[in-house]
């Protein structure tokens, strides 16, 4: 199947710093990508939809100024957690649909904010 | 996307078939049934999907009832590596619109030796 890759797979940062997570579709183009957050023992929660060449759309309750999304090309979307705090510690996952509508997920990025 | 209901957890003996049920009584005619699984600390992995016919691939079989209100994912010979959370999702397939997935709680399958 198609491959979606995230980087970094884990990151530890100090409170107040910003962290960028990349999501790449390696063998297909994706005009749309999705970002999820998952807390321990919970299911995935959709945060936002990243749209190539336009603004991302955010789910209710997700602060767009806190979680900056940039979809600069057809194969790359980035999520930047700005001024991270310990409560932002979570497992962040992206996904991208192929042209046939199948959805593939990245490996996930575990963020720990100290 | 339609809501699904799955048992929170199941156990299965290694080498035996694992049958994971899913109820989706409000599924609409153009919605497919998708199954994904998530092994601890990894992203979800696609397993199989179907519309109304039963489907089989190298990973699993999907049995969908005639009224499409429920389905069963079958892992024919479960191994320890199949221990994961299995998510049943219904959604419209194709195109970018409507590709958003709503994840329920899933079923935590524990394969035991």
Written overview of the protein:
The complex is a heterodimer of chains A (114) and B (113). In chain A, the strands form two sheets. In chain A, strands 2, 4, 5, 6, 9, 10 and 11 form a seven-stranded mixed β-sheet that branches. Chain A has strands at 4-7, 10-13, 19-25, 32-38, 45-51, 57-58, 67-73, 76-81, 90-97, 103-105, 109-113. By secondary structure, chain A is mainly β. The mean pLDDT of chain A is 93. Helices cover 0% and strands 46% of the residues of chain B. Chain B has strands spanning 9-13, 18-23, 31-38, 45-50, 55-56, 61-64, 70-75, 84-92, 107-112. In chain B, the strands form two sheets. Chain B has a five-stranded mixed β-sheet with strand order 1-9-8-3-4, with no helix packed on it. Chain B has a four-stranded antiparallel β-sheet with strand order 2-7-6-5, with no helix packed on it. In chain B, a hairpin with a 6-residue loop joins strand 3 (31-38) and strand 4 (45-50). The mean pLDDT of chain B is 90. Chain A binds chain B through residues 1, 4, 6, 31-32, 34, 36, 43-46, 49, 91, 93, 95, 97, 100-108, 110, and chain B through 34, 36, 38, 41-46, 87, 93-96, 99-106.
Dominant shape of chain A:
globular
Indicate the mean pLDDT of chain A.
Answer: 93
The helicity of chain B comes to under 10%
Number of helices of chain A: 0
Question: Could you give a quick summary of the protein structure above?
Answer:
Chain A is built from no helices and 11 strands. Chain A is mostly beta strands and 114 residues long.
């Amino acid at each position: 199947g198609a491959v979606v890759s995230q980087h970094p797979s884990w990151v530890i940062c100090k409170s107040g710093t910003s962290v960028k997570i990349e999501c790449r579709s390696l063998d297909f183009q994706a005009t749309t990508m999705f970002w999820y957050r998952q807390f321990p023992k919970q299911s995935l929660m959709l945060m936002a939809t990243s749209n190539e060449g336009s603004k991302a759309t955010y789910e209710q309750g997700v602060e767009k100024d806190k979680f900056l999304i940039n979809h600069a090309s057809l194969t790359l979307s980035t999520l930047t957690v700005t001024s991270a705090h310990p409560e932002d510690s979570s497992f962040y996952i992206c996904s991208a649909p192929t042209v046939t509508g199948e959805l593939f997920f990245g490996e996930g990025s575990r963020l720990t904010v100290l | 996307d339609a809501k699904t209901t799955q048992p929170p957890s199941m156990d299965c003996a290694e080498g035996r078939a694992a049958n994971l049920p899913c109820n989706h009584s409000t599924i609409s005619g153009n919605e497919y049934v998708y199954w994904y699984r998530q092994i601890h600390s990894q992203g979800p992995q696609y397993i199989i999907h179907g519309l109304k016919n039963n489907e089989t691939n190298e990973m699993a079989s999907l049995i969908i009832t005639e009224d499409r209100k429920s389905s069963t994912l079958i892992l024919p010979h479960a191994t320890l590596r199949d221990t994961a959370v299995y998510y049943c999702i219904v959604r419209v397939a194709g195109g970018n619109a409507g590709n958003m997935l709503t994840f329920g709680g899933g079923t935590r399958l524990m394969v035991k030796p």
